[in-house]
């Protein structure tokens, strides 16, 4: 069974930075796209950033030029560097991975990590 473990959330002042990490663990699997989504209270979950195994990144419009996604395929880990944070970035951030395990392929989500940006 594959699991995702997120870390790096917390409280930061507006204009500050945070770095999120998410590591996939388990046996007999490979990963397609990995990335991050977020959900603020009363809002739908939205794309933050994803990256293919080949390194192609895709960003949500609200975070372009402020957030940077990267991944370490050898360690099955994806990172999100968040700079120039705004109060509207406050949300629960969920790690996402497309898991390929034998003949199965499925979407996997982490439990979420809270990011709070104070004004």
Q: Can you put this structure into words, describing what you see?
A:
With 119 residues, the chain is mainly beta. It is 0% helix and 60% strand. The protein has no helices and eleven strands. The strands form two sheets. Strands 2, 4, 5, 6, 9, 10 and 11 form a seven-stranded mixed β-sheet that branches. Strands 1-3-8-7 form a four-stranded antiparallel β-sheet, with no helix packed on it. The radius of gyration is 14 Å and the shape is elongated. It starts with a strand and ends with a strand.
Annotation keywords:
single chain; 119 residues; mainly beta; seven-stranded mixed β-sheet; 60% strand
In short:
With 119 residues, this protein is an all-beta fold.
Question: What is the topological layout?
Answer:
Blueprint: E1 3-7, E2 10-13, E3 18-25, E4 30-39, E5 46-51, E6 57-59, E7 67-72, E8 77-82, E9 91-101, E10 104-109, E11 113-118
Parallel strand pairs: 2-11
Antiparallel strand pairs: 1-3, 3-8, 4-5, 4-9, 5-6, 7-8, 9-10, 9-11
């Amino acid at each position: 069974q594959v699991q995702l473990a997120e870390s790096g959330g917390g409280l930061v002042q507006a204009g500050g930075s945070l770095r999120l990490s998410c590591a996939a663990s388990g046996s007999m699997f490979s990963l397609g796209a990995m990335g991050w989504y977020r959900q603020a209270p009363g809002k739908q979950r939205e794309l933050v950033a994803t990256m293919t195994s080949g390194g192609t990144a895709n960003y949500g419009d609200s975070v372009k030029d402020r957030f940077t996604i990267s991944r370490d395929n050898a360690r099955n880990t994806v990172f999100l560097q968040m700079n120039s944070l705004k109060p509207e970035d406050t949300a629960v951030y969920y790690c996402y991975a497309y898991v390929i395990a034998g003949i199965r392929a499925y979407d996997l989500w982490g439990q979420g990590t809270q990011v709070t940006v104070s004004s």
